[in-house]
Each structure stands twice: as structure tokens, then as C-alpha cells.
Task: inverse folding
């Protein structure tokens, strides 16, 4: 059974893999086919990272075959013909590593948002009430009341009220 956390992580990884693929395709436009095939391998979970920095990439056509990628080299036949040895297995590994870095960067950005206490707030620009929290960078994340979105605003645009506890009441 898939838990909510697992499905969220899967959606996050899927999006990060697709972003990494778009970046790789822009950089290596002539290798779009290999990159797309690497994406399929990555999306299907065919890449296994090992503690020693190497990886095993399961074949997309034969589940019993694994290719070993280490130090920028792959032991598949296509690596001999691919430009600079960049086969779909190397791209799959590269996409997974890049996606993991993208997710880590996103996680770091989100954790920096929640450094101050949650407070009642009034957004002076639109006259909207809600809640706000000061970020590490000095800006403020404002959550308008009754909405499921938030926005980052300048502190000068808000009137901050008292702190609130988990249930939204002042303390």
C-alpha cells in the first residue's frame, strides 16, 4: 500500500526528473532521444545508487540485465557509440542525481521560510486578513484567510498582529 508521504515523494521526484530532463535536453539537444530513454528508466525506478558512488541501471527491455555506471562510464554496448559515452543509462543516472539535488534545494528553500512565529496579519495592499510568518531572508510569507495559497510579501506591506497557536487563536 502506498502512503500519502510516499505518493507525495513520488510526485515530487517525477516533477524533478522532468525538470532535469528539460535542462539536459536544452544542453544536449542532439541527444534528446537518449535523454528521453534515460528518463523512462529513471521514472520506472531502474536506477540504483550504491554507497561507493557507482550505480546499477536495469535494462528497460530485460529485467535480468543490469548495466554498471561508474566514473562516467557505462558497460553497455551503446556507450561505445554515444557521444562521449553518454548512453541512456548514464543519462538515467545523471537525471536521478540532478533530480535529487533539485528536491534538496527545494526542501532547503521551504525550511528557510518558517523561522518566525505565526502571527495574525493584515495585508495593506488588498485589505485582506490572514496569517504571516517571517522568513530567514527578512521577507514575510502571507497566508490570506480562507485561501489555500500563500505569497511572499515585503514587511512594509503588512500590519502584523499577535502571535497565534496551532488552532489560529491568539496567545
Result:
Amino acid at each position: 500500500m502506498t502512503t500519502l508521504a510516499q505518493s507525495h515523494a513520488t510526485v515530487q521526484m517525477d516533477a524533478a526528473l522532468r525538470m532535469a530532463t528539460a535542462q539536459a535536453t536544452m544542453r544536449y539537444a542532439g541527444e534528446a532521444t537518449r535523454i528521453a530513454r534515460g528518463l523512462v528508466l529513471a521514472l520506472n525506478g531502474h536506477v540504483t545508487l550504491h554507497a561507493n558512488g557507482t550505480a546499477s541501471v536495469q535494462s528497460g527491455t530485460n529485467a535480468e540485465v543490469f548495466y554498471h555506471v561508474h566514473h562516467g562510464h557505462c558497460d553497455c554496448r551503446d556507450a561505445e557509440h554515444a557521444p562521449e559515452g553518454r548512453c541512456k543509462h548514464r543519462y538515467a543516472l545523471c537525471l536521478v542525481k540532478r533530480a535529487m539535488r533539485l528536491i534538496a534545494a527545494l526542501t532547503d528553500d521551504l525550511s528557510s521560510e518558517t523561522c518566525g512565529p505565526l502571527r495574525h496579519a493584515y495585508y495593506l495592499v488588498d485589505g485582506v486578513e490572514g496569517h504571516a510568518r517571517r522568513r530567514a531572508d527578512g521577507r514575510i510569507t502571507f497566508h490570506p484567510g480562507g485561501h489555500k495559497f500563500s505569497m511572499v510579501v515585503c514587511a512594509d506591506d503588512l500590519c502584523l498582529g499577535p502571535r497565534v497557536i496551532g488552532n489560529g487563536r491568539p496567545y
Summary: The first strand starts at residue 47 and ends at 49.
